[in-house]
UniProtKB/TrEMBL annotation:
Annotated protein name in UniProt: Phasin domain-containing protein
Residues annotated as domain Phasin: 13-102
Organism per entry: Luteibacter yeojuensis
Pfam family, one: Phasin_2
Length: 108
């Protein structure tokens, strides 16, 4: 009789471990997606700026491109800060979900 309870406890543990792993993977997947989106935004901005600089016909056009570079830098910092906040939100949500999963009473 003791063995049946031990197997049932082990089965519940394995079930909870699998659920916890799935939660953690979903959180990591969302974080990676947010990081990739931020990186793509930075790459698009830098590529556009370089293309404009290469097409500048004179010093005034190049100055305008460089002025726009400062603005793009500020936008990049804003994107990074937003991504960091979103990543923190995903981390908190994942940790909360994991905590709720661990706190679940064992099912009979």
């Amino acid at each position: 009789m003791v063995h049946v309870n031990a197997y049932a406890d082990l089965a519940r543990f394995v079930e909870q471990a699998a659920a916890a792993q799935a939660l953690a993977w979903r959180g990591m997947e969302r974080v990676a997606d947010l990081q990739l989106q931020a990186l793509e935004g930075h790459a698009r901005a830098a590529t556009g700026l370089m293309a404009d600089a290469m097409q500048a016909q004179d010093a005034d056009a190049l100055r305008a491109v460089m002025a726009r570079g400062g603005e793009l830098q500020r936008e990049g910092v804003e994107r990074a800060a937003t991504a960091a906040g979103d990543i923190m939100g995903v981390a908190v949500q994942t940790a909360t979900s994991l905590g709720a999963l661990v706190g679940q009473p064992a099912r009979a």
